[in-house]
Amino acid sequence: MEFKYSRIFLLGFGFFGISIIWALYNAYIPIFLQDTFGMNKTVTGFVMTIDNLFAVLLLPFLGALSDMTRTRLGRRKPYILLGAPSAAIMFALIPVARSHGNLALFMGTIIFMNFFMALFRSPVIAFMPDITPSKKRSQANGIINFMGGLGALLAYFGGKALYDVNYAYPFYAAAAIMLLANLLVVLFVPEPEEYRVPGKEISVRKLLSETSRRSFGELKENLRDVFASHERSLLFVLVSIFLWFVAFNSLETFFTSYFKYHLFGIPVGAAETEFTRKIESTGAFLLGAVSLSFMLAAIPAGFLGARIGRKKTITLGLVLISLVVAGVYFLGETSKPQSPSLSDPVVMEFMALFFVAGIGWAMVNVNSLPMVVDMTTEERLGGYTGLYYFFSQAANLVAPPLAGAFLDLIGYKTLLPFAVAFFILAAITMQFVRKGDIVRGRGNALDYLGTD
Fold this sequence. Notes:
The chain is built from 14 helices and 2 strands, in the order ααααααααααααααββ. By secondary structure, the protein is mainly alpha-helical. Helix 1 packs across helix 9 and helix 3 runs antiparallel to helix 13. It has a two-stranded antiparallel sheet with strand order 1-2. It starts with a helix and ends with a strand. The relative contact order is 0.16.
């Protein structure tokens, strides 16, 4: 299949829809859990790991399952068609469940929503290397991350206006947009011909049985590659991914709470008012500054990775984001916003810092997946994509309860130093990575370092 950038942009709508959902979920669910159901920060952190638990348990299986799937549509689209509509319905029901004040109903809704999101997320991610040659993957990953950033930007900025009116409205709008975005992927992004088998019916039972035997065996084999190989690049890049996602997820999960409870001093469980809704939506809006700069920097970050090398680009990004988050910490400890208005000088300073942080995050995030998938063969792309997400989601499984425990024991002032420490550790471990990068060979040809 001929490579086309226009096709990658269309595929990016899958990431666009997914990012809208996760941006709103991470910004507001911790507030709901603490205010409506009285959970402390540690328990809130554990609840916020449900999506990551599903990811750790299911993504390796689903990556391998979609690798083996052959249908008239291809090997990735059946999972999108099943997962996206179901996840959209569950997401739209979250504010309905909250309004009933029933914890069991609320938890059931978010558990099913997380399950259905896990069902199609890995196949969507693996779709990119399916239709992209190795030498174009950093650029392609930049494009789809641009689309993901655009989705998060819409969630934070557009969601603020809707949330200020009614906290349920952003959830309804995001569910509809995510459904339409993934429909565009299914309709307009063809899968490679070899994965489409016209006229041949798939045996679901046989496929599931074979995948059950192979998927976690493949994960075990891939993990053995990680820990047993004499060449430690794969191990160190995955450890780095784990560390920087611990840092980022802790911020993503608790910054809105930090903004409300620490900077404004609103007591947990205080009655909902127009003022408190504006504080919550403004905290989420500040995270939108990260998404804005991430979106703008995503494509240049992919080309920068191709130009100076992925490892160097990732390291520079980690250093930048560490410095910025440290700056956010000192600003928060020395200055408090007087109102949740975007015209408040302190709020504007937070926004400027987060904008710079998004540039660093783009440099890191855009170039990491291509490093991992370029350490394997075409036949194992889905499995290594699952391995990448195993480590990133394992980090997200650890981050919320660990950060929440620090917040319960010491207070919200530990949130930003906690993140900085893990970003710095990630920058250190990245220095031991020797593979998965781009080297310039003779005749200006680009060769990618592969497996041993």
